[in-house]
Amino acid sequence: MAQVMSNKQVLLRDFVNGRSPTESDMYVTTNSISLKVPPQDSNTVLVKNLYLSCDPMMRFLIMKSDQRMSKYIYPSPGSPIRGYGVAKVLDSSHPEFKEGDLVWGLTKWEEYSLLPNPENLIKIHHTDVPLSYYTGILGMAGKTAYAGFFEVCRPKKGEYVFVSAASGAVGQLVGQFAKLAGCYVVGSAGSKEKVDLLKNKIGFDEAFNYKEEHDLDAALKRYFPQGIDVYFEHVGGKLLDAVLLNMREHGRMAMCGMISQYNLPEPQGIKNVMQIILKRLHIHGFTHRDYDHIVPEYYEFVLPYIRQGKLEYVEDIVEGLENGPAALVGLFTGRNVGKQVVALAGH
């Protein structure tokens, strides 16, 4: 007889469009689950979720839209929120996974998840580093930072690099990768605490609080009198417009996210697009899903730095699934400092 356990879940109340998500758009409930894959379910794994990742891309998973991203299964109202996480396999009818395997990838916001066709799960082989790192530096965020900076931007030693949302899951890594590549790097963030973190712990050459700058163009000219060679974009809107004015000729821009636009009824227009032509800019939009093939190369690059303590990775970990909704919506107000993670009970 299979053991039956209570299963706490975070469910989506309804789709959220044209405004910022709130905690009340989700609710916590508890049902029960058998800790055995049903006999009729082939290619299925049952996992115990250990860490859940809060990511800006989850905003798109809770909106009703015709422009949905492939590879994701979207929750419907009344079903669990979905996102990336770290989990332990409790039972499996899938030939690639067995009981006891540790995995990271797409899961559900609940204590236990039954995941059919888990092709999006990746086995964890390196357990001498914190498991929570697979929500960030060794997961989607790390792959995004590495691919965006080295594959898209192709930096050269001595270049000038600007990173927006620089204290977040991806930005803090881009800044450190830029320093490893011999670049000068400046980051923007939304509080004094985050600016201090970037300069004094993460190792940016300079950083500024964009909320204190009334003229973003002037701010960028102050920090980049020679102009910007590489811009790693997370914000969009007015900041992107100012960056276009300050790019150097043949500059490269890795377009990874535009968090300032996600909750607006209508996106803000960009006025300085002529700069793209005048400066012959290379602007490349991408997502981490374009670079699944580089994960082994990335691990070979990054794991020695982690083990030697030569990379800082700041995590903001909250305990308990019931605190997940507040952590997730806090991404859009800048409440988190570093990579936002939800640790589940018993992790």
If helices are DSSP runs of H or I spanning 4 or more residues, what is the number of helices?
9
Q: Unreliable runs, pLDDT <50, ≥5 residues?
A: none
Characterize the overall form. Answer: globular
Strand-pairing-aware structural class: alpha/beta
Number of domains: 2
Strand percentage, roughly? 25-35%
Give the CATH class of the largest domain: Alpha Beta
Proper CATH architecture of the largest domain = Alpha-Beta Complex
Estimate the helix proportion, in percent: 10-25%
Number of strands: 15
Pfam family, one: ADH_N_2
Domain Alcohol dehydrogenase-like C-terminal: 169-297
Protein name: 2-alkenal reductase (NADP(+)-dependent)-like
Domain Oxidoreductase N-terminal: 9-122
Structure description:
This protein is α/β, with parallel strands linked by helices and 347 residues long. The chain folds into 2 domains: 4-137 and 314-343, Alpha-Beta Complex (Quinone Oxidoreductase, Chain A, domain 1); 140-289, NAD(P)-binding Rossmann-like Domain (Rossmann fold). 24% of the residues lie in helices and 28% in strands. It is built from 9 helices and 15 strands. It has helices spanning 58-61, 140-153, 171-180, 192-202, 216-223, 237-246, 274-278, 295-307, 324-330, and strands at 4-12, 26-34, 44-53, 82-92, 102-108, 112-116, 122-123, 160-163, 184-189, 206-209, 228-233, 247-255, 282-285, 315-319, 339-343. The strands form 3 sheets. Strands 3, 4, 5, 6, 7, 14 and 15 form a 7-stranded mixed β-sheet that branches. Strands 10-9-8-11-12-13 form a 6-stranded parallel β-sheet, with helices on both faces. Helix 2 (140-153) packs across helix 3 (171-180) and helix 5 packs across helix 6. The longest helix has 14 residues, at 140-153. The radius of gyration is 21 Å and the shape is globular. The two termini are 25 Å apart. One of its GO terms (molecular function) is 2-alkenal reductase [NAD(P)H] activity. Pfam families: ADH_N_2, ADH_zinc_N. Residues 169-297 form the Alcohol dehydrogenase-like C-terminal domain. Keywords: Oxidoreductase.
